[in-house]
Amino acid sequence: MRRRTSLILLALAVFFAALSPLLRWYAFPRLAKIPPNQYQDMVLEAKDATLLDYGTMQARKVPKVTIVQTLKGNVEASERIERTAGRDVVVWDGLSYVQGPDGKMVSKIPERYIFDAHTQEPVHATGEMVDGDPVRREGIEFKWPFLTEKRNYEYFDAQARITAPIHYKGTQTFHGVEVYYFEQTIPWTKVPFPKAMPVEGITPESVAQTGTTRWYTTVRKFWVEPLTGAPVYGEEIHKEELRGGTLLGGRDKVTAFAGHVKMREDYIDHTVDLVKSNRTLVLLMTSYLPWGFLTLGVLLLALALYLEARGRRPGEPAPEQAAQPAPVSA
After folding, report:
1. pTM for the complete prediction?
2. What whole-number distance in Å separates Cα of residue 103 and Cα of residue 106?
3. Which partner from 113, 114, 196, 299 sits 20 to 30 angstroms from 124, CA to CA?
4. In this structure, how many other beta carbons lie within 10 angstroms of the beta carbon of residue 294?
5. What is the residue-averaged pLDDT of the chain?
6. What residues have CB less than 8 Å from 275, skipping those under 6 apart?
7. Cα separation, 293 vs 28, whole angstroms
8. Is the pLDDT of residue 121 over 90?
9. Whether the Cβ atoms of residue 188 and residue 216 lie closer than 8 Å to each other
10. Are the beta carbons of 69 and 96 closer than 8 angstroms?
11. DSSP 3-state of 238
12. Which residues touch 278 (CB under 8 Å, ≥6 apart)?
């Protein structure tokens, strides 16, 4: 009985020891994914900003500019794309809505971001766009991959429709969470006018006829929780200018918007709490369970060896062998 028990324990030890790396390196990459129906919103503010008054075409100081960003998972679109892509796909329909201190719309830019649910790599499919213009993203946007590394990534800039490196700058602690700090600089770049303009009767086409162009630069900053790849905080030092053309009345350029955009405090608390809960789930599959199974396997192995050793104690009499019959003489 004791030998049978040790064999069972040995089998369980091998099972749990083998399950440990399988859970970490096989199951986790397949199970960890962004749900297709996820919805999230975020409010950012630029206080003491500069904003263009399109009525007078003069830049003026304003107490606050508010940016509301929403991301809504489009399940129907993701299922349609999955049928041809052959992998799990997430479709986010996003909207960046900017409003002035009076609550009136400054701009609103919709976009559709299509990406792999496991790796966050872009998936190119019909419907991928920014402000109605088809785009072909390279690199990440909005979210880093699970188990983010301490290295530079390629990050897509929706305003300029370009991909540029976003640089790892170090590890910090933010609201009690260890985060990786990333920073990206987009130099002055000519960008399209938003299709939704703040003044009725003014369209991108009518502005283009005046010869006036829109330029943009930003320093983008993200604090990313590395296990989930989710940003817990973000800032932008954002500047926009209108340059040249008859619209400016002979001026070379005028500031359209300038401000230090920061996440609103109440959204910081909500985001940190959400990331902490998701971080626990990732730790469960990448650390707690694999190490727990490995430890359990070692303990079961030790117990099996102990029982086997006790089953063979020294000094026990050897079992008697049956006497062989003597040969019969003829």
Report:
1. 0.87
2. 9
3. 196
4. 18
5. 90
6. 177, 225, 228, 230, 232
7. 15
8. yes
9. yes
10. yes
11. strand
12. 228, 230
| Coil/strand/helix, residue 6 | helix
* Whether the Cβ atoms of residue 221 and residue 183 lie closer than 8 Å to each other: yes
Question: In sequence order, what are the beta bridge partners of 157?
Answer: 162
The string of DSSP codes covering 72-83 is EE-HHHHHHHHH
Is the per-residue pLDDT at 330 higher than 50?
A: no
Lookup: tokens for 19:
């399950």
DSSP alpha helices (H): ranges in the chain? Answer: 2-22, 28-31, 75-85, 204-209, 265-283, 289-310
Amino acid type, 95:
L
Sheet holding 253-263: strands in order across?
133-134, 129-130, 105-116, 89-99, 58-73, 39-53, 253-263, 230-243, 213-225, 177-191, 162-174, 153-157
pLDDT surpasses 60 at 111: yes
pLDDT value of position 5: 82
Nearest Cα to 199, choosing from 68, 52, 63, 101? 52
Contacts for 68 with CB less than 8 Å, ≥ 6 apart? 41, 42, 43, 44, 95, 96, 97, 99
pLDDT at 197: 86
pLDDT average, residue stretch 222-246:
95
Distance, in Å, from the CA atom of 167 to the CA atom of 181, rounded to the nearest integer, reads 8
Query: What is the residue type of 21?
Result: P
Residue 227 CA from chain centroid, whole number: 10
Closest CA to 262 of 244, 237, 284: 237
Asked if 96 and 67 count as a contact pair (C-beta separation under 8 A), the reply is yes
Nearest in space to 155 (alpha carbons), one of 119, 180, 132, 121: 121
248 secondary structure, DSSP code? G
